[in-house]
Design a protein that fits this description.
Distance between the termini: 22 Å
Number of strands: 20
Shape: elongated
Number of helices: 8
Oligomer: single chain
Largest sheet: 8 strands, mixed
Amino acid sequence: MKTDTEIVIIGAGVVGLSIAYELSKYYKEIFLIEKNKKFGEETSSRSSEVIHSGIYYPAGTLKAKLCVEGNAMIYDFCDKHEVNYNKCGKLIVANSENQFKQLDKIENQGFKNGLKKIIKLNKREILEKEPNIDALKALYLEETGIIDSCDFMGKLENLSINNGVKIIYDSELIDLNKKEFGYDLLLKENRTNDFSFTSKIVINSAGLYSDKISHMLGIKNPNYKLYYCKGEYFSVGNRKNKMVNRLIYPVPDPNLVGLGVHVTLDIDHGLRLGPNTIYLEDNVIDYSVDKNHLDSFYKSAKVFLPFIQKSDLYPAYSGIRPKLQAKGDPSKDFVIKEENNLGFKNYFNLIGIESPGLTSSLAIAKYVKNLIKK
């Protein structure tokens, strides 16, 4: 029996859009469905927009492999399609003996992951690059940058549509069932009308809701349980944005729960601090920024930004990471796999796609394409 479409992708965040674009080069019948009214309304539009190098992640993991591969791919894509970015570079800074040891571990991890150029700096060399920061040692990563993520997603959307992808916005998946010939999907369109269609292949790229999509098929693997982890950002005003030209990161938590409150720039050279890490009880969506956290942001940043004053900071925005890592647990890798062993041929799960998901997005799309072609 012929299905209504060959492939359906659930979720039009940056990863879903990347997959749609990649697969549209090889397949003609693709639906991309999204419950919101436009692309990237959740995790993808609430990130720091950093193009990561891949230095942190354990060697051999998908996070490490796809981040390093995706870093090169995203710059090539931006150059080809005129997407705005700034390869500004990044410093990981240290100010104590314990942090120096951690910095060495991070450097070694980066080389294991295939990074070609990691530059170790002393205090004099740091000040030559960033005269207004305070650090004794640092690692300098030239391949780290920032991207206009909305511009990037908009280009992916446009290219996908031009290649024949049908994007269905404002349509929430409310049921998913395995059939002999493929999968039956039931959508609620415009929050009112229900309609169903069939697909040979289903790709679950639903971000914060990816575990719930799996539950619809009866896949309740405890290793797929998501934990919502909020990250808040505070903007830096009073013209202090002109005092830093690169991304500045502290030595991160060893378990990589977060990368520490760091200094990021946006594409217009605005300066931000963040994100922190706040696990949300019962996975309740909460995008508020607690102004009472200003003090902790200030204290964290003051260590390496001596020019910062409390009066410079004001709440900006927050995002939520779909983590597979429970509070206190070690780092967990991306889940990207076909669930054929569970009897769900041509159903592909992408779960726990948090940072470095943006950087890895094009590489993830290529990885999924190769899984399908196998």
